[in-house]
Amino acid sequence: MKHTIEQHTHQCGCRSVGECMCNISAERKALIACVDDFAENMKKKLLQKMVEGKNGWEDPEWFEADRLAALEEHLEKSDMIDVANFAMFVWNNQS
């Protein structure tokens, strides 16, 4: 689902545009909703792969050349959920 600031706007009753903080609030809400949906999709995909027997992501040895090649394949396919999951694995394995 694509999130936009417009989906989160509301009538604010501010006296002027210069003092209105509603757009910041709407942007914050849209950003949080977008991240929440993205994270849910990441979790769904991770759990699906776990059930299929894919594991070892917490092991630093997991990041061999073939894993990086797999990341490249996901980038080429524009599979951003898998790309994000790979990024999370890298992030998790940083000391």
The unreliable regions are: none
Query: Helix proportion of residues, in percent?
Result: 55-70%
The helix/strand class is mainly alpha
Shape: elongated
Task: Tell me, rounded to a whole number, the average pLDDT.
Answer: 79
Task: Evaluate the radius of gyration.
Answer: 19 Å
- Major sheet: none
Q: Output the helix-strand order.
A: HHH
Distance between the termini: 34 Å
Multimeric state of these chains? single chain
Helix segment tally: 3
Q: Give the amount of beta strand, in percent.
A: under 5%
Number of strands: 0
Question: What are its keywords?
Answer:
single chain, about 100 residues, mainly alpha, elongated
Detailed description of the structure:
This protein has 95 residues and is mainly alpha-helical. Helices cover 59% and strands 0% of the residues. The chain contains 3 helices and no strands. It has helices spanning 22-51, 65-76, 80-93. α1 crosses α3. It is elongated and about 60 Å long. The chain starts with 21 loop residues before the first helix and ends with a helix. The model has no long low-confidence stretch (mean pLDDT 79).
